[in-house]
Design goal:
By secondary structure, the chain is an alpha+beta fold. Helix content is 33%, strand content 24%. The chain has 2 domains: 114 residues, Uridine Diphospho-n-acetylenolpyruvylglucosamine Reductase, domain 3 (2-Layer Sandwich); 94 residues, CO dehydrogenase flavoprotein, C-terminal domain (Enolase-like, domain 1, 2-Layer Sandwich). It contains 12 helices and 14 strands.
Length: 280
Amino acid sequence: MTPFAVDEPASLVEAIKLLDPQDASVRPIAGGTALMLMIKAGVFRPARLVSLRAVKELSAIAAQPDGALKIGAMTLLSVLERSAMVRAHAPVVTQTLRTLSNVRVRNVATVGGHLAHADPHMDLPPVLIALGAHVEVAGPDGTRTIAVEDLFAGYFETVLRRDELITTLVIPAQRGRRAAYLKCTTRAVHDWPALGVAVSVDGESSRIVISAATERPVRLPGAEAALRDGGDEVVLRRAADAAADEAETISDGQGSATYKRQLVRVYVRRALAAALGGAT
């Protein structure tokens, strides 16, 4: 491991000032569960890391008057997992976190870091897309809002600039929407999934999102359209077939593209059945 400097600002404003948009070797670090592995493996060689651990303003969870839930980017995944407020607002998030990696990682990893890392195998991004969530981002030019489904540009890529930080995750009021997340792992339940499927449904619309089998988490509008005819078994299978036809799956260590396409067909139907209250 090559030597590097570490700055530890105490405020968001100070942290943003320490980032250099022209220097890719300067990187913010939150929990560091992924970044430190990349550094140890020599994949990334930083000149300087900007630690966000002392930025206390980014660690709150708060309900909003409009029914939304705001979660600070430095909130630990384990805190999110145990939060009664999160469980009441979006129980699918709590359920997803129980098999996200392992407890050691969840005790260190943060919400913002989880999203900014942009690994397509991550569990929370497809769930948050299905829930219609967005992030608030701060930079030297001010703040902006990005829907989670628009955050990811590709494999380990986001639309964030080098001098921008995710500050807040906002999950809107669900108002009776029902959601489910299922994943297929080839080894242990907490392992990287070969496929993740998140869905949310109500009487008028649905969101169907897949990850891990694709280069980034993606919605499947064709499958969503197929679900507009109802929720019986015939319709669920039609939506699942549409999802398998629509998904642009990739091959990796978790399985071939062809194998993952068949997983999409099976798991989309199961996730929809789970969200609608049927057996999985």
